[in-house]
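FORM 7B: Structural annotation worksheet

SECTION A. Query
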Amino acid sequence: MSWIEAIVLGIVQGLTEFLPVSSSGHLRITSAIFFERDAGASFTAVTQLGTEAAVLIYFAKDIFRIARIWIVGIWDSSVRASLDYRMGWYVIVGSIPIGVFGYLFKDQIRETARNLWVVATTLIVFAFVLAFAEYWGRQTRTLNDFRMRDGVVMGFAQAMALIPGVSRSGGTLTAGLFLSLTRETATRYSFLLAIPAVVMSGIFSIGDVFEPAAPGTSVPTVAQMVVATLIAGGVGYAAIAWLLRYVAHHTLYVFVLYRVALGSLVLALLLTGAISAT
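SECTION B. Predicted structure
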């Protein structure tokens, strides 16, 4: 991997991780178009440690409060009715699906799912699913109305993002809107829900990132991996603040249009032979 490749992919990861456009899909597409190779699923997983560090910093007070009350609630029944205690369980239970599916389908995720025909198709298909959710969602329920059912449904939606092009934040936002949650509520839970799965995935992928997953896969040095992850974290921190302000006052249709446009562009490049699907 060249230094310019590591820097560009770090920026792309930071910009797209929290938007409903699929960061893994963008890394795959960027690698194919500009560098004519694949950085690999492990590179994506490790750079996500940077963006999740941004989440931990941005929501540090909320995360510390939820964790503290959840721990206290294990022994003290008087706090178990609080939202923070319940939110701790919602995040834990909601993280189970992506952990299970990620383990069961690890090989397919690293190989078959990274085919650009799959990425482009899922970008377009799930764009329309997101559009339907934005149109039909009543957005009447706030964080105080959040229930375990919501956490489970959004947890399964997050698991779908194991396929590049679906988008973890896009899947959880879509599910949240179908559950009549407000965009702000779905977005905040999405940030919290990502922490266990993304951190564990990144840690377990550190060893794999320096080994070529397949012929033609670019392999970073330790220094390049560190720099790309730090860049992703810095850019991601700014993206969090922007997205929270944006969803409070705007619909998600701009992301729908962007996904369709990008997916169509990739399909056109594949059909003309300008890029390879693998």
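SECTION C. Observations
Residues 3-271 form one domain. The radius of gyration is 18 Å.

SECTION D. Sign-off
Analyst initials: ____
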